[in-house]
Amino acid sequence: MKKNSGLIGVALLTGFLTACGGGGGSDKATETTPPNVPSDTISPELSEEFVPFEDQNIIDKIKDLISGETSNGTDYNVALGHMIGEVFADYPVGRTGRIVQIYNLGNNSVRYPNLLCSEVKTAGNIQTLTLKADRENCIVLDKTYRKGSVITKSVSGDNTTLTFSNVRYGSNLDFSLTDDYLISGSITYTSSQSPAGKSVSYFVDKLEFQRIAERQDAPAGSTAYDALSKEYLQVRNYVYSLVDDYGSGSNGVRTLSSAGMVIGQPYMAGFRYSFNFNTTAPFKMDETLMNAYKHLPSEGTLQITDGFKQKIEVKQTTPGALSATVYLNGKELSTLPWSTIIGSK
Fold first, then answer.
1. Of the candidates 26, 33, 81, which has an alpha carbon nearest to the alpha carbon of residue 340?
2. Are 235 and 207 in contact (CB under 8 A)?
3. DSSP state for residue 193 in the 8-state scheme
4. What does the DSSP assignment read for 282-337?
5. Residue 151: pLDDT above 80?
């Protein structure tokens, strides 16, 4: 990929698609993650193959309509794929995938610590995971945590907050991986359920995730490209909400909405981008049978404003359509299959 440190803000993200779960009249226990998201620890990484726009004509159409600096086609394509990946990752459920993955990573590490080299201290409703004083490293599940890493879990009513402080880890399963992952910031998860329905949400005030060479000091986080960071993600004022209204019989509705700001640097890229996104019309999925919802939305619009102030919209213009329609500054560009947007897993 050609390096270009001047790019900060090319865009196309999109925000939806969800799989089955809860339904009319269901009293299923509240889940700790949205449906179909694995509960076990996941590496917060995106597939290098997650690039949705392989058609160069679509990229050219977007670039032709943008007034401002743009990168070459390869960089632009990678940025688009990375942004979409931050919402969907590899699983067919509408949420910022990496946020859920990082939440699972911290939650499971606290739940299943390695007591030989780490410890969890409990004070009231607060649990804190640290390495033992005499240990430089500790393998917890499939991650090798470094000395100084602290994960705090606090529970208050329906809210669970995970805070990552100086968390540095590598993979214990991928022996070819010589990089470290760094996480700082907090994620608050909220769940509730009643006879009328259930809801889950994630909120992030500010969270940073980056990949660097092993034992290297963390580069300063910002919108500016930093060559020392092999990959970078910063999420600000992010909220994700998935609400099931059970209704009566099989006429329930699932509603998805999300908003926030993301700063990203794809893996081994030479640029950073930034964008704000918001579901100006929440995505809605109708219930088919009890405990099952349609996988394709009946309606919904996600609007993205990139660093160049370009407005991109991804709309479900036809209920149940297999593809979303993509608009840039009010002009229709193309359609994009949901199967491409969400990946195959």
1. 81
2. yes
3. E
4. EEEEEEEETTEE-SS-SEEEEEEEETT--EEEEE--STT-SEEEEEETTEEEEEEE
5. yes
**Mean pLDDT, residues 282-309 taken together:** 82
Whether 182 contacts 217, CB under 8 Å: no
Q: Which residue pairs from 123-127 have beta carbons closer than 8 angstroms and sit at least 24 positions apart in sequence?
A: 125/154, 125/155, 125/156, 126/152, 126/153, 126/154, 127/152, 127/153, 127/154
Contacts of 27 (CB under 8 A, 6+ apart): 193, 195
- Specify if 18 maps to a domain: no
Tokens found for residue 128: 């804190």
- Is residue 255, in this structure, part of any structural domain at all? yes
Q: Which of 285, 287, 310, 290 is nearest to 300 (CA)?
A: 285
Residue 42 has which token pair?
């996941």
Q: Is 11 inside a domain boundary?
A: no
Q: How many domains does the chain have?
A: 1
Distance of alpha carbon 162 from the chain centroid: 16
Asked, for residue 3, whether it belongs to a domain, the answer is: no
Range of the domain at 223: 56-342
Mean pLDDT (whole number) for 144-169: 96
**pTM recorded for the entire structure:** 0.79
Distances (CA, A) of 178 to 165, 169, 212, 227, 263: 21, 11, 9, 17, 24
- Distance, in Å, from the CA atom of 264 to the CA atom of 275, rounded to the nearest integer, reads 9
